[in-house]
Amino acid sequence: MIRVLVIDDDDIAREAMCSVLVKAGYYVFELATPIGATSVIKRDGITAVALDINMPTINGDKLAKLLRENAQLANLGIVLVSSCDIEQLSALGEKVGADGIVSKSKLHVALAPAIERAVAARAAKSAAPSSSSSSSSSAPPLFSGPPSTRRPR
Known about the structure:
This protein is an alpha/beta fold and 153 residues long. The protein contains five helices and five strands, in the order E-H-E-H-E-H-E-H-E-H. 37% of the residues are buried.
């Protein structure tokens, strides 16, 4: 099952993203700030992250860049979410190595498919032959769900 971490400081937007993803059948976690995101991703076997761009502590694009540069998170799908201009969002996504972008105005129809594509893209990249050998296990760590965990109904 796809495990998605939603990070957005706006309660209403975060709730909307979580609702869309739960309805799509994903196992959803949420954070109001990017602080602690890497720990949650590693601890809970997160498959993809939906990140708001504009947050107070660290912008989503900067967090996405940090996540993408972390070799332990090479298989993590990253989708940037914002209400900013779609061309600007697209340029940011390309710059930081995001797997997808979603405008907040299209959240209800575009977020779940973007997560699905991001996960598929990462799976395809990890399945492709590589010159470096990797012996790390692909099994997610044992679940120790945070209080904000939402389960599909």
